[in-house]
Amino acid sequence: MAEIIRAENSGFCFGVKQAIEKTEQQIYNNKDKKIYTCGPLIHNQFVIDHLASQGVGIIYEPEQAHRGDVVIVRSHGETKRFFDDAAKRGLEVVDATCPFVNKIHQLVYEAHKQGKKIVIVGDRAHPEVTGINGWCDNTALIVNSKEEADAIMGENLFLVCQTTIKKELLDEIIQVVKSKNMEMEINNTICNATKERQESCEQLSKKVEAMVIVGGKNSSNTRKLYEISKKNCNNSFFIENIKDLPLKQLRKCNKIGVAAGASTPECVIKEVIANMSEMITNEKNSMEDFMDEID
Ligand code: F3S
Fold first, then answer.
1. Confidence class of residue 288 from pLDDT cuts 50, 70 and 90?
2. β-pairing verdict for 92-95 and 157-161
3. Three-point CA angle 121, 126, 129, nearest 5°
């Protein structure tokens, strides 16, 4: 009978849990106030739809809200200007920036004040990177490949990373920096939750015949899990929920692994596992019925 194994570390990370809890508290405590998140709270449509059904709106700039409105800053964090403008506008800001991201903001803010040139390793379009860049007046050099790192010039450089990048990317960039003899202070700010999820996914993907990676298609950390899994296991599937389950392909496999990104709700993961277990049980039953018939 097929076996389903869940990756040791999968699903909501500490920072995402905290953001969800803070938002739930606001919904409960501030029934008479308008509540917004700044951008979608997490990269998961299931959660976003649920919050919308509770009346939580989404804004992108403080100007979109009014005095006294509650604005929740998500775990990705925001620029310094956002906090300054929100205060000027009289918004009630609930800061749910992940403490690990907050630490990067402080590092970058201090280093920038000391005249250091900030280098961010990460995806320039990702809100976490935009937020970090906003703590050094948007002056950072942003690199996302060794080719881009090769073009870095200057001195007194101070490097931080987007929390969800792959360790291999940072290692490649450090190699480039060393080969150019550049003076650069390197801060590995990759978050442990990301590392743990990536390692669990990698180990599991080496042991199974198929991997199911559960999470929002726009979740960068879930996409990375899929990429890692695909390297070891050809039958890797990136799904958002049970509707996407490739049951036909999974039926052929005896060992199926399940991993999930840091923004994937527990209920979605459990539903996926339950659905696969049901598929396996049904198959076992129909096989037993068949054996009974031919007995
Ligand atoms: Fe924070 Fe790491 Fe999660 S930076 S939001 S605990 S992936």
1. low
2. unpaired
3. 45
For 100-147, the three-class secondary structure string (H helix, E strand, C coil) is HHHHHHHHHHHHHHCCCEEEEECCCCCHHHHHHHCCCCCCCEEECCHH
Pairing of strands 92-95, 117-121: unpaired
Mean pLDDT over 139-164 rounds to: 94
**59: which DSSP letter?**
E
pLDDT digits (tens, 9 = 90+) for 200-214: 999 999 999 999 999
Which of 163, 167, 221, when mutated, tests ligand 1's pocket best, judged by the most ligand atoms within 8 Å of its CB? Answer: 163
Q: Which domains does the chain have, with CATH numbers?
A: 3-11+193-284 (3.40.1010.20), 14-97 (3.40.50.11270), 100-190 (3.40.1010.20)
pLDDT higher than threshold 80 for residue 134: yes
**Is 191 near ligand 1, meaning CB less than 6 Å away?**
yes
- The response to whether residue 41 sits with its C-beta less than 6 Å from ligand 1 reads no
Cβ 225 under 6 angstroms from ligand 1: no
Pocket test for ligand 1, best of 43, 106, 191 (most atoms within 8 A of CB): 191
- Residue whose Cα lies nearest atom 5 of ligand 1: it is 15
At how many degrees (to 10) do helices 14-29 and 45-53 cross? 10
pLDDT for res 289: 59
Asked whether the CA dihedral 101, 122, 72, 269 is positive or negative, the reply is: negative
CB of 12 closer than 6 angstroms to any ligand 1 atom: no
**Of ligand 1's atoms, which has the minimum distance to the CA of residue 19?**
5
